[in-house]
Design the sequence.
């Protein structure tokens, strides 16, 4: 694998990752896997299982899993049946040394992510129920495969999980090439603790991460361990430059946020800085000092290997938008839709441990009619058990009533800003100012804010719903102006975000700032007539959602097009011919009230 | 159970380490808020605390971890046992550091009716929650900025009063819950409401260090720890012990430390200059400076201590325009230079 690291295809990368995870998965967290079809994802999981020790446990994680099942708790059915506490140690503890597969991982919410990261970091779960002789902790050293099934512009897997998974893989074919066998992994496991890395290699790895704008040192640590795994799998006791290059391509490549700046002319100052003398007795590793030339070669080799693994669309600038991780978690907040907070509006049958609050009186009322019958059944079954203390009320899980709570939903404000040439000239500055004011206000109200901009061929979601004001502000500041007016595409994106916000239980307010002079059709082609027809068609879809929509006409004279589009959307229409940011803000506030 | 990475082996992040150590010297400083990106040793620092801090004496069998020598802060159970003539025995336990995961239910946090006993034996009993476990120690909330506001509010309330009052499902319990709240989060992913920010004693901003040597050192130490946790921990044990001794010495000294009037006046002027509302900023500033002086083994609190602690004590209290980009640290530096003169 030392040769042509750059040319590794996706399947080979996945195979290498599988072998490394089978070897050192607990320390490396696992993998985030993007695959277009589930059979391909399954092929990866199957391959990983084939390399992991025989009999290693393996489970799939249902995202709606209650804490008691995930982290352990009281086994309610058994407890009631036996009249004494019976503990269930939970899925993660049962999975110690095994593999946890998470389908639909992009839907992992903040709560589940927090629980998983805690277990990944600590490697154990605490005993949550007081039971005689139970240990305080259960080991739960798991490797996870998070299968990311998100559409292209949906939020990716939660940042806290993604950061802890060494590998971010994309896979489009199966089967994987079987480069290793289970025995190879077992042999490597014995060798792995003895594999050493020299100082220059480590420094170069750290430097590489910096060049590509990767802040997380977790990623560097993962790359280092991966390189050692390669050495061990090859039966060596020291990492080669090839190991480093391949590990960098696999672990660091997909995380790059920018391209390195081109190296200065060779005649200038030496670059990179030469490694300093080994600092103290702490590194027994570096026996021989490596010269500059050697280090430069290593660096070039890594950069070459990285090239094939980089995400598309990288530039040499620092990213102007919030990094993916931040975008993913911005919407995370509280899981609001569960009806677990707020004012009580009744009771329903349910399990009180999924976060629901038990309504004791209703539970007993539900159990009451069955008492004579249950007592007879019990006495028939446990004739001998009369000496043990018996519960006074026989409650079954079916009796549980939990409180139904009502909580007013949050609001997602979706701003759709026209950045086209016709609109931009006069109005962009005002629009930006107004949006900033509204952002500040939404922040104070703890609403979510999303931003769509449209210009040129189509509309773009600049900022998915978030409560992070800094990200919103950056997205807005980076918004350029000029080009056509793809109004239909803008409305389509707004419909999309509205539906997404509704799924999370939020109300929506959509605010268009536009002159509605549509001249780009949905397919990206020019032509006013088709563009307007498409826009009106999209507008009718928006109307079907029955949400609050506001159209702020930013043209110098009230434009009939804007009125037509507003009417088709069932939106309120406000013409603001001579306005500043404050009057736009006032109009939106009025519409929202 | 895995060993925790030693506190002293954390590279850099001096402000964070100092803030955490100062809460060990004087827990009444209030909570610590740590803001920064992923992978900046936030969790590592907090999880390292039990190994760093001196173990504490705990009444045997007490569900709230009562201090055998502190009559004033005893729980009702212990009082009842003493009243019944029992001689309380005690053990040494590490200082608790309790994790509060996002999405934990209120029941889990404050405690609730013990379901199993209620249903199997018909008894009304209280099952203590995380707040009880955190008594006399630390409660750590990662991603506190994503925690529901009402929970953050509740945590800060309990931390401030030192008592958890539970009234629900027919149970009525109050028990001591004195802990230092440590919250961490990535501000890019959402902010805390200003009202909540103000209630933290200290706040620190951590960044990944840009210095290549330091970054290499971080990876090296982490790697050395991963490969041989016992050996690595043993190697840093003397430094951890050193910090522990500092904390113990400072705890003995702090009550006797005087804050001269000139320093009090400087603190007030500093707070006025940066425009913090209310008295919380001043209190945090003075308590922080005092704990710092005690930790340093100084004879008195000086303006230099104020200067050092000012960014941590005040940066989260600035009335801010959310759209203003000037960093709060910069604003405080300016105020410090204006009020106290250049360093």
Sequence:
């Amino acid at each position: 694998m030392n040769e042509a690291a750059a040319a590794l295809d996706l399947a080979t990368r996945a195979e290498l990752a599988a072998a490394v995870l089978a070897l050192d998965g607990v320390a490396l967290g696992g993998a985030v896997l993007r695959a277009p079809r589930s059979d391909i994802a399954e092929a990866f999981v199957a391959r990983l299982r084939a390399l992991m020790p025989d009999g290693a446990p393996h489970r799939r994680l249902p995202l709606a899993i209650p804490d008691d099942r995930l982290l352990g708790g009281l086994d309610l059915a058994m407890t009631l049946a036996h009249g004494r506490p019976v503990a269930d140690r939970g899925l993660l503890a049962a999975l110690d040394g095994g593999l946890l597969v998470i389908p639909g991982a992009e839907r992992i919410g903040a709560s589940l992510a927090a629980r998983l990261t805690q277990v990944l970091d600590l490697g154990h779960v605490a005993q949550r129920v007081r039971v005689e002789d139970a240990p305080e902790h259960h080991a739960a050293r798991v490797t996870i495969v998070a299968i990311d099934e998100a559409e292209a512009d949906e939020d990716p897997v939660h940042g806290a999980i993604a950061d802890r998974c060494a590998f971010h893989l994309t896979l489009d074919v199966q089967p994987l090439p079987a480069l290793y066998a289970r025995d190879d992994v077992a042999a490597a496991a014995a060798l792995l603790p003895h594999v050493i890395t020299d100082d220059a290699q480590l420094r170069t790895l750290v430097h590489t991460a910096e060049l590509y704008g990767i802040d997380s040192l977790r990623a560097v640590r993962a790359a280092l361990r991966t390189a050692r795994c390669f050495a061990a799998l090859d039966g060596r006791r020291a990492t080669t430059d090839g190991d480093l290059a391949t590990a960098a391509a696999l672990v660091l490549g997909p995380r790059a946020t920018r391209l390195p700046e081109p190296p200065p002319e060779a005649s200038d100052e030496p670059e990179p800085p030469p490694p300093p003398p080994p600092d103290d007795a702490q590194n027994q590793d570096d026996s021989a000092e490596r010269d500059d030339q050697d280090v430069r070669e290593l660096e070039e080799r890594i950069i070459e290997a990285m090239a094939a693994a980089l995400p598309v669309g990288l530039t040499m600038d620092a990213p102007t938008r919030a990094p993916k991780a931040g975008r993913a978690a911005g919407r995370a907040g509280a899981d609001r839709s569960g009806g677990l907070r707020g004012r009580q509006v009744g009771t329903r049958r349910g399990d009180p441990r999924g976060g629901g609050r038990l309504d004791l009186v209703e539970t007993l009322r539900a159990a009451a009619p069955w008492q004579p019958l249950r007592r007879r059944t019990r006495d028939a079954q446990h004739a001998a058990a009369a000496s043990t203390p018996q519960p006074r009320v026989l409650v079954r899980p079916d009796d549980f009533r939990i409180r139904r709570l009502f909580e007013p939903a949050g609001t997602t404000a979706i701003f759709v800003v026209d950045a086209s040439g016709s609109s931009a000239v006069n109005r962009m500055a005002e629009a930006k100012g107004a949006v900033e004011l509204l952002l500040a206000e939404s922040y104070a109200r703890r609403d979510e804010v999303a931003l769509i901009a449209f210009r040129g061929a189509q509309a773009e979601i600049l900022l998915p719903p978030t409560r992070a004001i800094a990200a919103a502000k950056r997205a807005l500041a980076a918004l350029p102006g000029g080009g056509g007016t793809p109004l239909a595409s803008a409305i389509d994106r707004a419909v999309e975000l509205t539906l997404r916000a509704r799924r999370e239980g939020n109300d929506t307010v959509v605010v268009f700032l536009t002159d509605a002079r549509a001249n780009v059709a949905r397919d990206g082609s020019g032509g006013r007539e088709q563009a307007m027809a498409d826009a009106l068609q999209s507008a009718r879809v928006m109307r079907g959602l029955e949400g609050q929509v506001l159209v702020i006409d930013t043209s110098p004279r009230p434009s009939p097009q804007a009125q037509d589009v507003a009417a088709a959307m069932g939106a309120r229409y406000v013409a603001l011919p001579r306005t500043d940011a404050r009057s736009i803000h006032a109009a939106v506030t009025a519409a929202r009230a | 159970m895995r060993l925790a990475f030693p506190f002293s082996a954390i590279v850099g992040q001096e402000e964070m380490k100092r803030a955490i150590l100062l809460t060990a010297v004087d827990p009444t400083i209030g909570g610590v808020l740590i803001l920064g990106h992923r992978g900046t040793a936030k969790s590592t620092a907090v999880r390292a605390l039990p190994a760093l801090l001196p173990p504490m004496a705990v009444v045997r069998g007490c569900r709230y971890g009562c201090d055998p020598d502190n009559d004033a802060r005893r729980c009702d159970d212990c009082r009842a046992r003493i009243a019944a003539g029992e001689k309380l025995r005690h053990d040494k336990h590490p200082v608790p550091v309790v994790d509060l995961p996002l999405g934990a239910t209120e029941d889990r946090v404050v405690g609730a009716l013990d379901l199993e006993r209620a249903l199997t034996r018909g008894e009304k009993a209280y099952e203590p929650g995380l707040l009880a476990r955190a008594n006399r120690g630390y409660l750590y909330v990662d991603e506190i900025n994503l925690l529901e506001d009402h929970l953050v509010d509740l945590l800060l309330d309990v931390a401030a009063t030192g008592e958890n009052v539970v009234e629900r499902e027919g149970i009525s319990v109050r028990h001591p819950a004195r802990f230092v709240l440590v919250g961490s989060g990535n501000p890019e992913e959402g902010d805390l409401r200003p009202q909540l920010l103000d209630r933290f004693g200290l706040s620190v901003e951590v960044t990944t260090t840009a210095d290549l040597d330091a970054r290499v050192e971080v990876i090296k130490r982490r790697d050395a720890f991963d490969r041989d946790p016992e050996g690595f921990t043993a190697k840093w044990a003397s430094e951890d012990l050193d910090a522990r001794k500092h904390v113990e010495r400072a705890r003995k000294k702090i009550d006797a430390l005087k804050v001269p009037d000139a320093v009090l006046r400087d603190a007030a002027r500093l707070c006025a200059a940066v425009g913090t509302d209310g008295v919380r900023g001043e209190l945090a500033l003075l308590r922080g400076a005092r704990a710092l002086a005690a930790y340093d083994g100084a004879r008195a609190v000086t303006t230099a201590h104020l200067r050092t602690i000012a960014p941590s004590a005040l940066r989260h209290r600035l009335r801010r325009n959310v759209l203003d980009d000037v960093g709060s640290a910069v604003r405080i530096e300016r105020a410090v230079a204006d009020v106290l003169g250049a360093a």
In short: Chain A is about 40% helix and 15% strand. The first helix of chain A runs from residue 10 to 28.
